Amino acid sequence: MTTPEPVKFPIDPESPPEFPGTMPGDVARDFCDRLQAIAEEANAYLGPEHQALEALDLAAHELMITTPFTPRYAEYDPEN
């Protein structure tokens, strides 16, 4: 599987690009970390039940869903 490449801006309206719809895991994790930092800072002002904080949490969750799934298997040693 190839690593998705971001679309270059500005976009040519005559020939719009196709967005990959996925992003590398490290990029998604960085975005999620930044959203978490924003939520923590805003929590002091808005309170934990504010819908803006719920939206930030949902956005972080949705970003992690966009990362391509790579199956990983645990090492198996029949001796142990």
Ordered list of secondary-structure elements with their pairings:
Layout: H1 25-46, H2 51-65
Concise account of the structure shown:
This protein is mainly alpha-helical and 80 residues long. The protein has 2 helices and no strands.
Entry keywords:
mainly alpha, 2 helices, flat
Structure, described:
- The structure is a single chain.
- The chain is mainly alpha-helical and 80 residues long.
- The chain contains two helices and no strands.
- It has helices at 25-46, 51-65.
- α1 (25-46) packs antiparallel against α2.
- The longest helix has 22 residues, at 25-46.
- It is flat and about 55 Å long.
- The model has no long low-confidence stretch (mean pLDDT 84).
